[in-house]
Amino acid sequence: MTTAPNFTPKLRSSNFYIWMIGIFVFSLAIRFWGLERFNTFVFDEIYYAKFANNYLTKTPFFNAHPPLSQYLIAIGIAIGEKLPFGSGVVNDLTGSVVKSWSYRWLNALTGSFVPLVVAGLAWQLTQRSRLAILAGVLSALDGLFLVESRYALNNIYLVLFGLLGQVCFLIAARRLNRDESWKTSFTRPSMSWIWMTISGFFLGCSASIKWNGLWFLITIVGIYALAWAFCWIDPMSKNKALNNEPTLPRQITHIPAIPIVLGIAIVPVLTYYVLWIPHIAQNPDLQFWILQQNIYLYHKGSSVIGDVHPYCSTWQTWLTMLVPVAYFYKLGIDPTEPIALNAPNIPLLPGASIYAVHAMGNPLLWWMTTAAIVAIGSTLLLRLWKRLSGQGFSDSFVLVTMMVGYGANLIPWMSISRCAFLYHYMGSSVFATLALAWWGDRALSRQNPTMTRVVWIAIGLGVVGFIFWMPIFLGLPLDDVGYRLRMWFPSWVEGASALKRKS
Fold first, then answer.
1. Would you call 330 helix, strand, or coil by DSSP?
2. Least confident of 45-49, 81-85, 232-236, 290-294
3. What CA–CA distance (Å, rounded) separates 319 from 313?
4. Where are the domains of the chain?
5. Which of 412, 107, 67 is nearest to 272 (CA)?
6. Model pTM?
7. Are 165 and 203 in contact (CB under 8 A)?
């Protein structure tokens, strides 16, 4: 009889931390490898890197997003110019002569922590080390998060802060003393106050990157409301609480009222307001409420998808990654030499290399995560049907949490008519990755050789996909055959225009 690999649900703490260190080192290495490649602006670096430098040069400007990501990139430039890395690869596109490495390195460092935070979220939800490891590994193999980490863009900050807010919210519930009630919390503040305040700070930071960072806060509101619903509907939750084994829904409902208000209302609002103060001090002509109105009017546009930018896409296409975004495409260049923003592509001569960067996920992994989150939704519907038909009901709070996080980050985009891009799916994709990790952990728990092989095949496909599309993620040189071999669909090359012609 074939024996399944020994990947047991319970791992020693030392092994768990070794996995986390390994995931972080890998994420760090792959993000910093050739970070100075392309001595120009890549995609929206034309805005964020330039705006960041404007803070350093005290130059007034208008930004269509809140200012936090530009503050961080500015800090990166100020520190990066003093570090010896990336020397010689400089340009003046920001308005000052700086190294391209300087306006990218802090994003790369920040993005390296994303797999660890995803693993932390998985652990706080389930308290299962193996599931957390799977979530971290799968996140480290994601191409979209890798690309967004390697350039002076803002989406990686939005997702990281939003996830940290959720992790801290769950820690507030997990760390709450079992004998503590909302009455004693008024006179004896506990760790729940501290963690909910930190959670609110991170949620405010996420909204201070882009307004859609608020959807992580909506996720927490939804989880909190559902926790109360679960404790009311599911009697097992109450029984376990009475036996001094509180379930996660019961722990969440034990968070005192004041910390909840702090974490989901007061602290995020104060954080958002305070983070505008440096921008307003530099741009005194427009005050806080006028700036918010201007941002709203800017994004209220009703531009038809595809008419503004060839890689605009609708939310339906994100599920199967039909329209990734071409961030960079040049022929026969020296990637370390300054590249003019509007420099035309030269004809592709024999032996010349193609340098391309596409903001796209790991396709093989992406499609598996979409299938996994759909399967989670189907499983919940089946369990609900069994409950209503009197056939029993198991604790599905973790699965509901995944669906709430997924939906809160996706549903608002369903009514958006203005130009949107694949990277707007990043918040939802985290929960799809958690869903895939959950299925993998469940399969391994059965100790079935066939199921174990399926899990390892899925992980193997993720690794193969990551390696195969790595030149597209990192902008490594390819010949024409190698490039076209990785562009499986016309819309991957031509964007929404290819879908329009097909329809």
1. strand
2. 232-236
3. 11
4. 166-300
5. 67
6. 0.91
7. yes
